Amino acid sequence: MQRRSFMKNAAAGVAAATIAAPAIAQAPQIRWRCSSSFPKTVDTIIGAGELFARKVSEATDGRFQISMHAGGEITPPFAVVDAVQQGTIECGHTAPYYFFGKDPTFALDTAIPFGMNARQMNAWQIEGNGLTLFREFYKAYNIYNIPMGNTGAQMGGWYRKEIKTLNDIKGLKMRIGGFAGAVLAKLGAVPQSLPGGEVYQALEKGTLDATEWVGPYDDEKLGFNKVAKFYYYPAWWEGGAQIDLYINQGAWDKLPKDYQAIVESAAGLAHTNMLARYDARNPAALRRLIGTGTQMRAFPTSIMAAAWKAANESYDELNKTNPRWKKIYEDYVRFRDDQIRWFRVTENSFDDFMAEVIIPRRASSKKG
Amino acid sequence: MQRRSFMKNAAAGVAAATIAAPAIAQAPQIRWRCSSSFPKTVDTIIGAGELFARKVSEATDGRFQISMHAGGEITPPFAVVDAVQQGTIECGHTAPYYFFGKDPTFALDTAIPFGMNARQMNAWQIEGNGLTLFREFYKAYNIYNIPMGNTGAQMGGWYRKEIKTLNDIKGLKMRIGGFAGAVLAKLGAVPQSLPGGEVYQALEKGTLDATEWVGPYDDEKLGFNKVAKFYYYPAWWEGGAQIDLYINQGAWDKLPKDYQAIVESAAGLAHTNMLARYDARNPAALRRLIGTGTQMRAFPTSIMAAAWKAANESYDELNKTNPRWKKIYEDYVRFRDDQIRWFRVTENSFDDFMAEVIIPRRASSKKG
Q1: Are residues A120 and A196 in the same domain?
Q2: Is the preceding omega at residue B283 within 30 degrees of 0, hence cis?
């Protein structure tokens, strides 16, 4: 009996192993490499990537590991699309508008001048047609895209001299790229493309008149306040810049369904957290900058209006020549206008009242 | 040899079973029940709960199932805290301010009059002290809390007559609860507590003068536009109402770490999605309401200012009597004021410019 029972137990052991097998098969060990386009110093963006990777690891009990790499570590910062497309790396974390040169359509997945703010962009991506349209667009790049972060409305950058009229834009040598640079060029500015490490010196020497980067928290670390006195707002070209997780389509397709759900959920968590980090850290940074003598300035309405006109001319031109752009842009703009008509009613009027009671107008107009 | 090898294989089988055992132990079958405080018709909120449960199921390959129940199905809508606290259900999905009567401190986890908007609330919860303070607060209720959804700034409700001065508030019978009701009572209104199903008839008969609910998308379904002509904004008492996932502390502690990470990530995804749903669906609903003759009205500044004063008086009183409130409120308000000083600079000025070009002021002031 005892031997028989031993045999039965052994058989049960084998059976248990058989039952366990699917569970093991469903939980494979996977390692991915993910390259950012950003340097380590941009700890809000890098931090969101790290949070994402940590949550994926925790959710799979360490079986799915994604190593996050700052721009340049394993892939040049702006080679992320190529590397993900070719499968050199399984994923990347980048601002799509960096790839404006490949196709301006990329910009609609981050920010375009006078586009949507962060919340409106979420609504378009998640509940409007945004994500569907971009999933289709990225097929040509062998990429599966997931929104993973937003900076919120950015600052309009650092200027050595005040910008009072359109004349002050003429000949302005500003470090700014993509669509914003193209629109500013229409107004007479001379957009410059300089490696990040050279901007400070160029501003100091005066070979550069202005630069833009993100907002108080990121800008402060680069020390631009020491070489340019005037800090302008808003960045009409970035009312909210979305960052994406790009996944090689083959790598995505090979993931078990449970890992796909884990990736989507962890990216969703990181998406909100990045914006929260920016929002939480910007106020103190702004106060410190003002404490060093930084002068806050709103862009004059005349310049905003001229930029609005120039931007729309650019969009009209693209609508005629780029069908990929046209298809997504038309949906984007229809959604944006709808959002603004609604936000204007209760969201903005709530915000405006709060600003009015917390920062009475006289104090506010003194400040900026 | 063959028998030996058989024995070796059998031993290997047992070893495999042993190795597999932890994987099986880490992936237990779990079933939770989650009760909402909302009816099925509030499909934005219910939908976020369902998305959460679906993602948890997908991420665990169906091993962790959470059944979502509309308010009343398994627990009365406002018994969610008690039921989660006692462990009758493992989790609930509710608006904390419904439990204002237990302790007004709950309201700080949803919305208070003149509080933070949705994005500012996220920043406070995730990157400020909000989540930490509330994790501590909820210990007394045996609850582990996770933010899971926000409505955005709500509408100020439906009124049978125009509200032009503070005199129009005196004696106003309005269906409104919690803090907002208390503040309105200070201004002379008579807050009413009526079951949802009776509000329409009471408004029609005129035994009720006004009611508030959420915003265009939810309000339209209740048909208030047919019995009250004036639709006011903003709900100064709800600049962004957060919804929470409440988990029984014991149930949370018993979850394996990987399931905890899955719950947190899926809740993070659902958090953003709920707001996106509201933002995406409100504009068309508002258009339809206006199409039926609804008249949009902004609350007069005199009423907003009086409510602001009355709200702050309430807060001062609570600071003196409720140490739990005081501790969280002081942190909340400091963070709010900081957020508003920053949002005022670039976020609001971007939004304001966009509203100006999309809805030129004359058209806008005609509309409401």
Answers
A1: no
A2: no
Residue A186 covered by a domain: yes
B355 chain-A contacts, CB cut-off 8 A: 340, 343-344, 348
Domains held by chain A: number: 2
Query: What distance in Å separates residue A125's CA from the closest CA in chain B?
Result: 9
**Of chain B residues 144-183, which have a CB less than 8 A from chain A?**
152-156
pLDDT digits (tens, 9 = 90+) for B211-221: 999 999 999 99
The answer to whether A105 contacts chain B (CB < 8 Å) is: no
Does residue A263 sit within a domain? Answer: yes
How far, in Å, CA of B335 to CA of A359, rounded?
Answer: 14
Res. A2 pLDDT band, cuts 50 70 90? very low
Distances (CA, A) of A331 to A126, A243, A270, A280, A336: 14, 20, 26, 32, 9
Residue A82 and residue A178 in one domain: no
Cα B30 to its chain centre, rounded Å, is 26
pTM above 0.95, yes or no: no
Within an 8 Å CB–CB cutoff, is residue A316 touching chain B? no
Q: Are A52 and A76 found together in one domain?
A: yes
Which residue, chain included where needed, has tokens 């007394």?
B140
**Mutate which of B312, B354, B361 to test chain A, going by most A C-beta atoms within 10 A?**
B354
Same domain membership, residue A337 and residue A305: yes
pLDDT (tens digit per residue) in A109-152: 999 999 999 999 999 999 999 999 999 999 999 999 999 999 99
Same domain, A37 and A169: no
